[in-house]
């Protein structure tokens, strides 16, 4: 009895953890289950099951176009945000004192600004510079939001880098450019890869900025939102389930590669 009383903080912590897991996975499980319902509406019990909704969604040209458009925007966002994020992280790492804290705060500001406020300000900005809504404007908005995550991950890795690696490269005759590409960049590889995965997932899931900056061609989140406006059906659940599966696979594979690269 005394041992049980002694361990109650640990038991309470475990209980809260498993309650959180249940809270997280129960809605997702219900969403996936409804995607197999053999009816054109959402209700319980499920009754007969079918995969016809999956076949219909996979053949949906609008859905496929939205997926390709989303992937294209996410790839462009990732490439641009990674280059800018690494450059800003290197710049912050070279600063000292208050300048470093100010630069870090400014670089991370887009990550803490509410999405609605960020989207409205970006819409005003592109209107001011006469940039039309559409692909370029969406990529601009996504890059602004994604860069801080690259900066944080790369800067964290950069601060753990032994200084004697750079000194050794310079003692062997390497200049700053060679040292960066042959020593610093390979060391930052796992953090850069993790930041790129963050950029991909953030861009593909960004609805608010896309809604304010997008044109007539919808991304996948906008397409799902438009379909929801006309009523919920298992078709919506199928789209969400496919997005969930792809996101989980990409995230788990990225975690596996990151762990392996760190061990090496």
UniProtKB/TrEMBL annotation:
Its main location: membrane. It is a multi-pass membrane protein. Gene3D superfamilies: MetI-like. Residues 67-254 form the ABC transmembrane type-1 domain. The keyword Transit peptide does not apply. Keywords: Cell membrane, Membrane, Plasmid, Transmembrane, Transmembrane helix, Transport. It is found in: Cell membrane. It comes from the Bacteria. One of its GO terms (cellular component) is plasma membrane. GO terms for biological process: transmembrane transport. The chain crosses the membrane at residues 16-36, 66-92, 98-122, 134-155, 185-203, 236-254. Belongs to the binding-protein-dependent transport system permease family. CysTW subfamily. This is ABC transporter permease.
